[in-house]
Amino acid sequence: MSSKEKILAAIRRQSPARPPLPSLDEAWIQYPDVQAQFAAALASVGGQVVEAASLADAASVIGQLPPMEQAAKIVCTVPGLPLGNCVLDDVPDPHLLADVDVAIVAGRFGVAENGAVWVEAGHLRHRAVCFICQHLVLVMPRGEIVHNMHQAYQRLTFTRAEYGVFISGPSKTADIEQSLVIGAHGARSLTVALVAGWEGQLSAAAQE
Amino acid sequence: MAEELTVVDHPRAAAKFVRDDARAHWHDQALWFVRVKRDRMAQSLPEWETLRAKAAEIKAHTVGHLAEYLEQFERQATALGAKVHWAADAAEHNQIVLDILQRHGVKQVAKSKSMLTEECHLNPFLERHGITVVDTDLGEWIVQLRGEPPSHIVLPAIHIKKEEVGELFHRKLGTEAGATDPKYLTEAARYKLRQVFLESQAGITGVNFAIAETGGIVVCTNEGNADLGVSLPKLHIACMGIEKLIPRAADLGVFLRLLARSATGQPITTYSSHFHGPAPSGELHIVLVDNGRSSILGNDDYRRSLHCIRCGACMNTCPVYRRSGGHSYGATVPGPIGSILNPARDPGRYATLPYACSLCGSCTDVCPVKINLHEQLLTWRRDIAAAGKLSWSKQAAMKAAAFVLARPGLYRLAGKVARFSLRHLPRLLLYGPWNPWGRQRELPRAPRRSFREQYARRPKP
Ligand code: SF4
Q: Which one-letter DSSP state was computed for residue B24?
């Protein structure tokens, strides 16, 4: 008997109660102003929101962020945002990304209750860029903020092999005497750029 | 970190911990601080109790249908290109992991936090076979460098002071002597561990949740070490206990809302990574481990302990854990939940753990999946006594108590003696080393008369 059969047989020998799966349809929290709540939640975990009136405006807003000033190597994978000087698709091996100063990547939507942004890596040749960069900028349509995690999962379907991640703030640790230190292994700072009038265009670009 | 075969003596280990009074106090405060942060987060959500109820219902449902969900998970994960392995026990788990690593010629692995691999003692096993394992969670790395196990499942180095980390890093990494600034020390670790990430040929992670419906796994970290560890090399091995399953992706809405709030008082962990299948041109192996879980499943009293999502909240709130330190439990999972899971695996070895509890019930109150922890701990005491695993001193005390309680005259006399002694004996006699109840606390002021005597003298109407 294989271990699989052994384990399944051991489980089937037991007869615990078999209660039904509960419905998740509840009056979950809603915020009067999702964008304000999102910005506050993100600030509380060490990140920040910047706003842009258009994608062109986002280029200048992001271009002026402090991490961009000294950045030597910048990866930008957002279509229509000419800020990068290193093309991710041309990098053969993710280990070559160790010296990336800033990565600018598209996020699909944000979650007001916890300041998280959903990022899908399907269109990134190396998802490592999101974690190995010194500073991370997520660019997101301004209108795409949901109230809570239940709404977030209503928007997600996992039907193909693809990596996705909720990122909420910069990398952090409190493993030395519970003192919070920003910048453990991943990004030292996280900026979310909310771009007005960009809804829909992002998914269109991602389809290409 | 070799597996100890001795019986765990919690009272003795705890006594050693509290001997350093200042340190025990500091440890207590550090954990209470985390508990307070958790409270703030829980109170900020009006639906907190609804979430806990849903989580408990989802887990009970899953455990009741576990075989079906495991099969569904395997089907879905395989369809996405992952390879699923099954391990009946720790030894088989370790062998599976070793085989995969050897097949790929791996010399060094970057590992992120996984209580399961601790439970299986994977690190020493791989090291014996010439593979270097680096624990990349900062807290876990600190305890690994010190050659000791984690003392907490979420905060592995909670028992260590920054001065000690500074000293350790000075010796091992060459940081400045006497440096204690957490920011500086973390930066040094970041620098060193980046090299580890870049050099490793494989990444091992734990699993927080595995979704039967989609075949995906979710890993939660704050540092980003799991993602760095598995996005640079081509090989990712994820190790999980079979109880980590949840039916639907939508259930994550419930669990991710509860997990970080309960664990560290954050609204969500920094990274909640969803792996569905391997990275393009990479490999994803998922090892499903039983190691005693299916037998807990068969026990009506302890089944709910399988609901645990390893948030650590019961440890942070436990008055005994906070004052005795995680190492005093002599087990991978300490605290209230550990005192249930470990005796289930080996009642003889862990017989003292269910007694490391005041039955205050605070653990049950904070548990995000509503495990009736303190009730199960009490049940364990019954089972341990029934199995004859009680220590002789406890047995003798119980017998003496039963003898006295069965004899009202003797009971009244004992009460008189106790009240007289408390009122009249000199402190020196009362607080001697023979009276453990007089250590670190004042004995109560004894009334002149017992309740019975007072009742008999009450003014009659
Ligand atoms: S038993 Fe409950 S409180 Fe304790 S670690 Fe598990 S989920 Fe958290």
A: H
- What is the CB neighbour count within 10 angstroms for residue B27? 24
Q: Which of B291, B326, B358 is the last residue of a domain?
A: B291
Structure tokens at A48: 């920040």
- The whole-number pLDDT of residue B1 equals 37
**Which of B40, B222, B234 should be substituted to probe chain A, the one whose Cβ sees the most A Cβ atoms within 10 Å?**
B222
Parallel, antiparallel, or unpaired for β A109-111 and A145-146?
A: parallel
Whether residue B270 and residue A168 make contact (CB cut-off 8 A), yes or no, is yes
Looking up residue B96, the CATH number of its domain turns out to be 3.40.50.10420
Q: Furthest-apart CA pair in chain A: how many Å?
A: 64
Higher pLDDT, B98 or B460: B98
DSSP codes of every residue in B188-236: HHHHHHHHHHHH-SEEEE--SEEETTTTEEEEEESS-HHHHHHHSSSEE
**Which tens digit of pLDDT belongs to each residue from B339-349?**
999 999 999 99
Examine the domain organization and report whether B400 and B256 are in the same domain. Answer: no
- Residue in B360, B264, B276, B274 with CA at minimum distance from that of residue B318: B360
Enter the pTM of the model: 0.93
For residue B59, give its domain range.
Answer: 45-291
| Distance from C-alpha of B319 to C-alpha of B104, rounded to nearest angstrom | 47
Q: Evaluate whether residue B63 is within a structural domain.
A: yes
Task: Give residues 379 to 408 of B whose Cβ lies within 8 Å of A.
Answer: none
Ligand 1 centre to CA of A102 (Å) is 38
ipTM confidence: 0.96
Split into its structural domains, chain B has a count of 2
**Cβ contact A181:A58 at 8 Å:** no
